[in-house]
């Protein structure tokens, strides 16, 4: 296992939702001879000097059985029904408990099939170059995940509640944000139709 204490960057993969619009766990949808969630984990693990943590919630036992990765840590968000913020808080709390010296963290979701290790690497590089406290992915005229936060924002992230996600901080601190291009970041899987487009049409929405 990687020495987590050498890793100043954490990648937290949020995979706790119950995929209500899809009707089955999107985390386990087959993709690239694997699954959507495993694909995101594979890409995160390609990045050097990071600590990877996955937050599960709904369907925890089923999903955990599929994740045979000794290099990652899995934590269960029992409050997943309270919205995205509960998974952000759980994941970041666990990350800081395991790795108190963490300098920055990247939040990613499991249903962006075109996420790659280079996206994660570009977020880290852009942060190093610009020294901005937040580096977000740019697509479809918006900023979103994956998104990197410097530790100066950890307290506010831990204070998020309800349906509030990281977007709240992105909007609040516009002057401290840099971005990288992730053109296919707009493609995510929420419905059966989205998934069919991904499989049969290469993801075009």
Automatic annotation (TrEMBL):
Tree of life domain: Bacteria
CDD domains found in the cross-reference section: GT_2_like_f
**Gene3D superfamilies per the record?**
Spore Coat Polysaccharide Biosynthesis Protein SpsA, Chain A (3.90.550.10)
GO MF term list: transferase activity
Q: Which UniProt keywords apply?
A: Transferase
List each copy of the MobA-like NTP transferase domain by range: 12-173
Q: Name one Pfam family in it.
A: NTP_transf_3
Q: What is this protein called?
A: NTP transferase domain-containing protein
Q: Which organism is it from?
A: Flavobacterium quisquiliarum
Q: What is the lineage of its organism?
A: Bacteria, Pseudomonadati, Bacteroidota, Flavobacteriia, Flavobacteriales
């Amino acid at each position: 296992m990687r020495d987590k204490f050498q890793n100043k960057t954490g990648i937290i993969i949020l995979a706790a939702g119950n995929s209500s619009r899809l009707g089955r766990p999107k985390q386990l949808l087959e993709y690239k001879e694997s699954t959507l969630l495993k694909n995101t984990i594979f890409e995160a693990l390609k990045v050097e000097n990071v600590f990877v943590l996955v937050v599960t919630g709904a369907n925890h036992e089923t999903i955990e059985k599929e994740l045979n990765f000794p290099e990652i840590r899995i934590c269960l968000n029992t409050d997943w029904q309270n919205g995205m913020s509960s998974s952000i808080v759980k994941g970041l709390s666990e990350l800081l408990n395991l790795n108190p010296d963490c300098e920055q963290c990247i939040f990613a979701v499991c249903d962006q099939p075109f996420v790659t290790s280079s996206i994660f690497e570009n977020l880290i590089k852009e942060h190093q170059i610009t020294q901005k406290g937040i580096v977000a992915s740019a697509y479809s005229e918006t900023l979103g995940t994956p998104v990197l936060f410097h530790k100066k924002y950890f307290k506010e992230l831990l204070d998020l509640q309800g349906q509030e996600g990281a977007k709240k901080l992105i909007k609040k601190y516009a002057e401290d944000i840099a971005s990288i291009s992730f053109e296919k970041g707009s493609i995510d899987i929420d419905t059966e139709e989205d998934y069919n487009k991904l499989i049969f049409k290469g993801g075009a929405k």
